[in-house]
Amino acid sequence: MRQLFCSLACTLLLTACGTLPSMTTSEDQRFEAHANAVLEEMWREFPESATRAGNYKYIDRLTVPTQARRDASVAFYERQLAALASFDAAKLNAGHRVDLTLMRNHFESSRWYLTTFRAWEWQPSNYNVGNGFGVLLNTPFSPLDDRLKLMLTRMENVPAYYAAAKASIANPTLEHTQLAIQQNKGALGVFNDDLLKKLDASALSATEKAQFKARMDAAKQAITDHLAWLAALETKLKAGPARSFRIGRALYEQKFTHDIQSGFTAEQLYRRALADKAALHDSMEKLARMLWPKYMAGQPLPADRLVMIRAVIDELSKRHTTREAFVETIRKQIPELESFVREKDLLDQDATRPLVVRETPMYMRGGGAGASISAPGPFDPTANTYYNVTPLDGMSDEDAESYLREYNDWTLQILNIHEAIPGHYTQLMHSNKSKSLIKSLFGNGSMIEGWAVFSEKVMLDAGYGNQSPEIWLLWMKWNLRSVMNTILDYEIQTMNLQRDAALTLMTREAFQQQKEATEKWRRATFTQVQLTSYFNGYAEITALRDELRAKQGKDFSVKGFNNKFLSYGSAPVKAIRELMVAGQ
Ligand code: ZN
Ligand code: ZN
After folding, report:
1. Beta-bridge mates of residue 372
2. How far is the CA of 502 from the centre of ligand 2 (A)?
3. CA of 326 to the centre of ligand 1 (A)
4. What's the pLDDT at 54?
5. Fewest Cβ atoms closer than 10 Å to its Cβ: which of 240, 310, 445, 568?
6. What's the rounded Cα separation, in Å, for the pair 507 and 519?
7. What is the predicted pLDDT for the residue at 384?
8. Which ligand lies nearest the alpha carbon of 423?
9. Residue 199 alpha carbon to ligand 2 centre in Å
10. How high is the pLDDT of residue 134?
């Protein structure tokens, strides 16, 4: 779902300047002006962050990752935190209070990353020039000739960039070194013959073209040298002791606090995930037993309940659409979801901002099959929201069959709820009504993913899928994935869980395919905490809903809760909870 953030911010920054939310007090006005000034300062200070957010103003600048640069960044964060401390949260309206929290979180967390987590030291995969150049080449934000000129400027610093990278890396992990090798090979691939052809065909002057070629050669040489240096490092790390990719309990709790902004501690969330796993297994056993005669008639019931559940899931997964009809099947489901939400009165929808299902544009493909939402920014109310669905044309028969089984007749509906209605698309539509650049840029990923997961449950609870055991069983398998991600991440990073045990957990206890499990293991060795974000958001929203339902009794309404919850933008659930409980 990274695309979500990118697309959201991209459109946003191109159109946002000059539009302000309605103001209430003088403190609100002062805050608003401050926030806008800070953003401008940030883009200048961190050109790469600007590019990631879809602001291409500084894309020609490549930041060289020296110690001096890191010191300047820390000073910047401290200056911003001091400035924010001058605002009295109690005098701000609810929207600005959330913005203040988001900004403070962002600067505190950024400072923590540099001074305490120090990934710049032990994760060689932090260094890779491929992305910035890739964006320049593949994002048509201006004519190609302009972008080639920007690239010419940006290439100048590549040798200095890799020199600083080497000087920064100390005591790295083997895993992040290997990842760096793989990714820098990719970066080298950006500077290819195709690019030279584009250069030759461009209207750049002969001098510019010659300079471009010289800088491109120097860039390629710098990456090649760096790859050789990394290969030697890899050999050394394989032979000798190396830092573990596991960050340990103390750092994990801190990273969880900064990344997730949860109302739970990491350990509390882990305990909750264990309890949910046990409860899901109990419910799945009942459903599988119920479905056995219908789908597995005549076959003996396995004594092992996990084996029995898996057998029923595998049988259900054989019911799926065809590869030819894949996109069309999704397209047909969207209006059905819309009318179900309307009929059951689950939350507000906006008929003036329809969702357009389209085949994923070629420039956005690359990650294989998939589905994602591209949403316009809050200041571009007339732009379409797209549901990008990648057709299965490029897949082998075997891969297509496996993909279609994963997105069988029931799971495909759950995917559509998650991505579209009332999941990501609906959440963004509501979020865009709160018109705040800060919320869009520093939005909380766990809230966004948590809402999408929560919305699946809202639909099924309301009777979507006719309360059939089939859709509930497959929803539980789907939900178990986020539960298991949380358990895995915590146990791998803080309890030394080994690969084989992790794979068994995923395949046996979460009913995953071997391929998914091995890919997940790999991801869990590179990242920390991120895998908990789905379940955390889901667990926090569920807990908040239960809290308010208990408090409001007969006055509680599903629609009231959903609309109110979505009205604060993509803020951390913890921050939304404070405002909702206080009745704001
Ligand atoms: Zn099939
Ligand atoms: Zn999602």
Report:
1. 388
2. 23
3. 13
4. 77
5. 240
6. 12
7. 80
8. 2
9. 38
10. 86
438 C-alpha to center of ligand 1: Å?
Answer: 46
Give CA–CA dist 467/17, Å, rounded: 48
CA distances from 93 to 90, 209, 255, 313, 443 (A): 8, 54, 29, 49, 18
- Closest ligand relative to 397 C-alpha: 1
Is residue 190 classed as helix, strand or coil in its secondary structure? Answer: helix
The whole-angstrom separation of Cα 385 and Cα 373 is: 7
- Residue 411 Cα, ligand 1 centroid: separation in angstroms? 14
d(CA 543, CA 547): 6
- 503 CA to middle of ligand 2, Å? 23
CA distances to 319, 373, 534 from 452, in Å: 24, 12, 9
Q: What single-letter amino acid sits at 252?
A: Y
The ligand with the least distance to the CA atom of 320 is 1
Q: Residue 378 C-alpha to ligand 2 middle, in angstroms?
A: 19
73 CA to centre of ligand 2 in angstroms: 31
Which ligand is nearest the CA of 447, by number? Answer: 2
Closest ligand relative to 452 C-alpha = 2
CA distances, 517 to each of 268, 339, 475, 504, 521 (Å): 25, 36, 19, 9, 6
Q: For each successive 10 residues of the chain (584 residues), what is the average pLDDT?
A: 34 33 73 94 92 86 97 98 95 89 94 98 95 85 94 98 98 96 92 95 97 98 98 96 96 97 97 98 98 96 97 98 95 96 96 87 67 68 80 89 94 96 92 77 91 98 98 98 98 98 97 91 93 97 97 96 93 92 82
Distance, in Å, from the CA atom of 227 to the CA atom of 129, rounded to the nearest integer, reads 13
Structure-token pair, residue 80: 């911003």
- Check residue 95 and give its pLDDT: 85
CA-based nearest residue to 387, from 396, 378, 377, 374: 374
Identify the pLDDT of residue 347: 97
